[in-house]
Amino acid sequence: MDKGQRRRVYTKEFKEETIALVLNRGMSVSQVSKDLDIRADLLYSWIRKYKSDPEHSFPGKGHQKPEDEELRKLKRELADVKEERDILKKAISIFTKTK
After folding, report:
1. Separation of first and last alpha carbons in the chain
2. Are 70 and 52 members of one domain?
């Protein structure tokens, strides 16, 4: 990528409309990629992601699929519980020391 060239960002709607050209209208990937100036391998990647999970494909920047969001919340909760446990262990050891 050249210094002055920026990475192009595509909206969810654009990706879905582009995929529809191939899947619903029967256009070839090579034709759509030429017409829209998109690399064919990128378009194939979009199609794979869409076919694997049409409802949650392309969640957008800063958004996650529901199962990924749930996993993130559970990991955060586990970290909090571990921290609380460690604090309690330290407190118990302080109060049970014999003088």
Report:
1. 68
2. no
